[in-house]
Specification:
single chain, alpha+beta, 3-stranded antiparallel sheet, 3 strands
């Protein structure tokens, strides 16, 4: 894990580094559980070097808006 950010109670963005050849299997696993994956027009990388990826999660929540500090993990 490189970093993560929470945007109130509506969204979280997780940034991590994974091996390029693992991007396609990760995207397939996310698709399987119903998470929309936007693929690049030139396809997924096929490399053994690490690349940085971001996962943005949007939440539908009720309740008041909040912002709090969350310690780094990973």
């Amino acid at each position: 894990m490189v970093t993560h950010q929470f945007f109130s109670n509506a969204r979280a963005v997780i940034t991590c580094e994974i091996t390029g050849s693992a991007v396609s299997p990760m995207a397939s696993a996310l698709d399987t559980v119903g998470i929309t994956v936007h693929r690049p027009t030139d396809g997924w990388p096929d490399t053994d070097r690490d690349i940085r990826v971001q996962v943005a999660l949007s939440f539908v929540g009720e309740g008041r808006d909040f912002r709090r500090e969350v310690p780094a993990f990973g």
